[in-house]
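User: Fold this, then the next.

Assistant: Folding the first:
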Amino acid sequence: MTPHDTTLPETQRGPAEKLLELVLGGSAHLWHNRPGLDIQGVWYPAQGASEELVRRGTPVAPGLFVPAAVKLYRQLLDIYRLNTDLLAHFASYALTQTDWRDLKVATSALMLVQGHSGQPIREPDGSIAFHDDDLRAIGEAMLLHYERKSTRMLTPKAVLRVAELLETPEIARLNREAGFGDPAARKPPLGRWKVVATRWLRAREQNPALLQGLVKAGYKSTLQRIARKAGYKPLTQAFFEVLGWKQKQAATGHRTVGLAGLQLIKRERFDGLSEAEICERIEHEHLSFKEVVGRLPADVGLTPAILAALLPSLSNKDLLMMTPTLEALGLMADADIRARWEGAVRAASDQRALHIVKNVRGQELKAKLEEASDNAARAAVKEATAETDVRVMFLIDKSGSMQGAIKQSKEALTRILAGFPMDKLHVATFDTMGTVLKPKAASRTGVQHMLRGIEAGGGTVHGAGVHALHWAGVQMPGEAKLIVIVVGDEEGEDGAQLARTFRDCGYDVSALALIVSVAHSRGTSVRTCSTALRVPFSEVSVDQFEDPYQVPRVLKALLDAPVARGQAPVSGWVERVMRTPLLKVA
């Protein structure tokens, strides 16, 4: 088998397994703001690419990466066909409980065009018996959802991207094939996008402060594009004035608003102003970084004082991203700025800081950015285990078959193990003998130190790791849920034998997961063990942990223990999705 073999044959995989595969098997990055390379449907950054990648790849312009969009949309359509209710709950879950921006765009696009639109269902005599469910209303609610200062509602850019995704020829073809649009129509099916976009714009036009805030945040051109695409007709010309949008009469002569007397609000450059005057303007007008950076005179540029004045407008993520700039300008020595930055480190929700480390010179800052990565993992673990006392057992395959794959396994583990409370985490390596491991510190450095001596060699007996933990006195509280996560290639003893080992050692397993790390071939030990134990099984490829956004998502999905066992065990994460209330239009 290959590292990409699925858990079950395609014909045996139900919607829950497909949904879990979607979440664990892809980061759902559809839009990229820099040039890339398409290598067999996978996007790679063009900058810094090796000669080999450049030779094999096809250049891709910034914007939507169509192969990834088609793959994700097909997966969503597949789940929709198998279990429409599950997809509806997942769309609601994606918006309200995740930060997966492109995934929200794709799910809301599908909900806006899919076939359950509240249409009347008629009796044989033509009378209306009842109305079908209106699941398009969930797509509407996703776009209209508003929560002050929330990072989980759709941004103006996301609202526009929903339409752009639906207009993509390959996506339009999938929708027509699914019966969501007229197969003979030239225009792509947009479902209710124009209607809901009009309502979205109207709410902001009628709330001038909200509209002005979006313009200040840098969404002026995005708002204009939404208005054009939706055919929006403003109530007053104030809408055009706030957007600085000059109007002219249409060829058909139907326009009546904004043709005369417009007082356009335009951003003036800061040419001729001193550094002190620019800082005064920033503080007096509460200007944001995006509003200022493009207006600075060339002879002034971005100075320490100007950046310090702009700091209140920066989010925690912005602050972490700008660490190299803050360091270069000497601003990390300022006590107030340093305190704000330290707060951003504590609040990190992804592991992008590990990429920023490469551009920072100071060792102390490097260590702090690694701490941000640990904090993101801790936050994900805390959220996933908030409702249940979860204990986690990691079994790390170091047998000879892992020669060539152990390095990648160790790097993945350094990104996740520091996220677990040490009193609830139990780690053992195994070949034909098990060895219990304990980090000396709950940090990336502590985990690296713990793993550094691991080398591949020997036979493969998963149960050796289980026995090692048992002999070391590891016990589980009766009320706790035990999640066992195996890192390796699954080649080893029969799954039924591994199941007996868990039972003999007194470990009541609630769920099994596999981080697939394969150098040569793959076995079935963990999957068949889950069948013997009648517990949920999930798997994720080790390379998913290279994505700084994907690590917290994977941890949440793997650690949601099932509420109860059954004949057909379901992931606790899928249970959580199904418990998510369906979104409704306010």
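Now the next one, as you asked:
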Amino acid sequence: MFQTFDDLSDPSCGAPHAALLRAELSRRGLDGFLIPRADAHQSEYVPPHDCRLQWLTGFTGSAGVAAVLGDAAAIFVDGRYTIQVREQVDLDIFPARHLIDEPVTDWLAERLQPGHKLGVDAMLHTVREVRRLKEICAQAGAELVTLDDNPIDSIWEDRPEPPVGQVSLYPVELAGKAARDKIAQIQSALADKKADACVLTQPDSIAWLFNIRGSDVSHTPLPLSFATVPAQGKPSLYIDGRKLSNSVRDALADLSELVEPEDFKNGLSALGMAGANVMLDPGLAGIGIAEAITAAGGALVEAQDPVLLPKAIKNEVELNGARVAHIRDAAVFVNFLCWFDEEAPKGELDEIGATEKLEEFRRATGVLKDISFDTISGAGPNGAICHYRVSRASNLKIPVGKPFLIDSGAQYEDGTTDITRTLAVGETSADMKRHFTLVLKGHIAISSARFPKGTTGAQLDTLARIALWNAGFDYDHGTGHGVGAYLGVHEGPQRIAKTGTVPLKPGMILSNEPGYYPAGEYGIRLENLEVVTEAADIPGGERPMLGFETLTLVPMDLRLVELSLLTPAERDWLNRYHEKVREEIGPLVGAKERIWLERATKAV
């Protein structure tokens, strides 16, 4: 299987590992150190080699940071992980704080003393982060020290080796644009910014630019690497040569200079010594990259990674691939739902069993490359943990009488999928149906939205929450994230969230996933992927509008819908959606599944 169920967390590691780290800091003359959930690429998912926060604290979530001083420590996580952190971390050693409401900078400002030296790994903290940390240290009379090596690496005895996953070429028939043309597009953008070169630190940006895919990171086809792109001439691709077959090496050598990662800093210094104006993204590039350029005499041009927007705005080939992948995956999911409705009411099915069966159905397509993330298979109280990962230790039987939440996705070569459904198992209560329907109303509001060009995700986010707010509820995650084209299931810069400040543009793919999570009881989330499109003209309207095309074609569970809470327009949306699901997916499944689908998509 692509998914494993080992329990990766060990809260008991906190005390001994914190003691080891404090001893190492003392040896180096440091009074404190920050440990982010990050690698040198600021990736969301990092290889075991870079899971330093997990090694130190036991926390396995995808976002967080720990702070260790001589006499105090804490771990900071966002609202997705407030339950998980209490289960995975020794809170006597690392008290938990909310990353947004109680940021690490506030915690440091209260505890740093004059003369303190606070260390950070120069490759794990961005230019923007370090600026803020320097301000905090200066206000306290302390000093921020950027380190070329990480103290944890000196004391982590069984640290895994760096990954050397093989790289493959991504065919232009799926990419829709040749790598050479993409490079020319980025070089044109550099000229507009009066930059002599740019530094790319995001593996998905590099994968998109060179039309390659890799296997260094679980569930995401990324080759960990760096690149520099000059305004003229060949880019340099800093990648471990062990990842390249002869044919891949030859193809990449035709596009770029291939250099080992150990020489990345030397390449940056060479740009600096040439007096180059070098573009980098201050929110993504480690401070060590910026310092290598400026220390050698170069100048920085701070701007968004120039690949992010072109990568986010899918071309027609990529969009057609996504449509095909979603239809394939919808047929898989209908097969799973039909099976689930037979098995779950028996009371013996557990979270792992459901996860394994869904992956089995996806594997049966014959074209599954991987799952796009560890399936969130949440029964009862585990469903209330937004980013729950089932292990053999946490595995629960799926109870009859409560909703079951399953959030999963697939990596197919023609597209990346991500879908969440909340399913009834037996009779559910009036409150459960009410909560489900409030979430459904928010989902429909996003899917139905029409909005003028220039609208940001932050402006749309309220639409998904208003029905919940009116009932006194909310959820502590964004409503939607960007999705790549056989790349990361979480992709920027587009998002539907309070922090989504990037205008949405046609061709962007986003998730639509409001939720509600009564702690200790169950979770509800409904997620489809949507493409931003040019919307049809509105009669009498003055401005051209954008809207969404729904990619995901899987039924919503009508057994959890309280119809009296839906407006006529919302009922129409639900019926139209289910009609499309029935027409598109019905011919792709077996006779038994087609009968199930007819019942699941009946008009209401």
